[in-house]
Design brief:
It is a single chain. This protein is an alpha/beta fold. It has one domain: Rossmann fold, CATH 3.40.50.1240. Helices cover about 35% and strands about 15% of the residues. The chain contains 9 helices and 5 strands, in the order βαααβαβααααβαβ. The protein has a 5-stranded mixed β-sheet. Helix 4 links the parallel strand 2 and strand 3. It is globular. The N and C termini lie close together (about 5 Å).
């Protein structure tokens, strides 16, 4: 069977390090005070939408964003470490200006697939965990649809094939490349509090 699943992918709201343009990977910062007002447009976009599953990074800025935009979904959300931002190691908390004269950093900027931040995460590990999450979710959606025999069955309509993912900028960009054939990681930037909608056709042959 074939099934179209709509992915709604949200980047968390702003933290202090985001505002200061510092690298923020696995460091577990809260949202800035007053972020509710800046997240109102996102809350409006998500208002009234039904989801068959909600996934979130376990780092607090993602659950805190969900709490502000759709508090009704918190209880049923699944918190998954695979949705964490890349770990930037020794570059966590640093800005571009602090690192720009470091040749190793320059090499990483140009070739992130080949260079790993000191004490941080390799591109191979980052992409593997995110793609593993993506594959697992699609398989789960197919299994759920097949159990009803028909995606139009009323039993399935109680859980529309739409999922919500709360995550980080780098993960948003990587998911986009995995879900949209031909998309480039470099060509897209996800702002804090932004939302991306991607309908994806999945099937078993």
């Amino acid at each position: 069977m074939e099934l179209t699943v709509e992915w709604i992918i949200v980047r968390h709201g702003q933290t202090k390090w985001n505002a200061e343009r510092r690298y923020l990977g696995h460091t577990d910062l809260a949202l800035l005070p007053g972020e509710e007002a800046l997240l109102r447009p996102l809350a409006s976009e998500l208002h009234g939408l039904g989801f068959c599953a909600v996934y979130s990074s376990d780092l607090r800025r993602c659950p805190e964003t969900l709490q502000r935009v759709r508090p009704d979904l918190i209880a049923g959300a699944r918190f998954d470490q695979r949705l964490r931002e890349m770990n930037f190691g020794e570059w966590e908390g640093k800005t571009y200006d602090m690192l720009k004269d470091n040749p190793f950093y320059r090499e990483w900027i140009d070739h992130p697939e080949q260079v790993t931040p000191p004490g941080g995460e390799s591109w191979e590990h980052f992409s593997s965990r995110v793609s593993g999450f993506c594959t697992e979710v699609m398989s789960e959606m197919l299994n759920r649809a097949e159990q009803t025999h028909d995606a139009r069955d009323p039993a399935f309509s109680l859980y529309p094939p739409r999922i919500l993912v709360l995550t980080h900028g780098g993960v948003v960009r990587l998911l986009r490349t995995l879900l949209l054939p031909g998309a480039s990681f470099r060509e897209y930037q996800a702002g804090t509090g932004s939302m991306l909608r991607i309908p994806v056709q999945v099937g078993r042959h």
